[in-house]
Amino acid sequence: MELMKTTIRRIGNSQGVLIPKPFLAQLELENEIEMDVEGDAIVLRKPRKQVREGWAEASKAVAASGEDVLALGEFGNADDGELEW
To answer: Does Magnesium appear among the keywords (predicted)?
Structure first.
């Protein structure tokens, strides 16, 4: 895409710009962006994924498939016999 000029428009009590659909499609943006000011530029970025995003759903899928077996099996520690519960 080449450089494009656009107009700042009033949106309620704020102001904004319309982002052309080809720009959104090129970056696969849908509903949310990250916005920052860098020097004399407003920078819009694709949101970074959250740490461990999707882990809960993935673990539920593994449990539902029955593949959630212990990798090392169960084993006790040498001193477990002395513990009182």
So the answer is: no
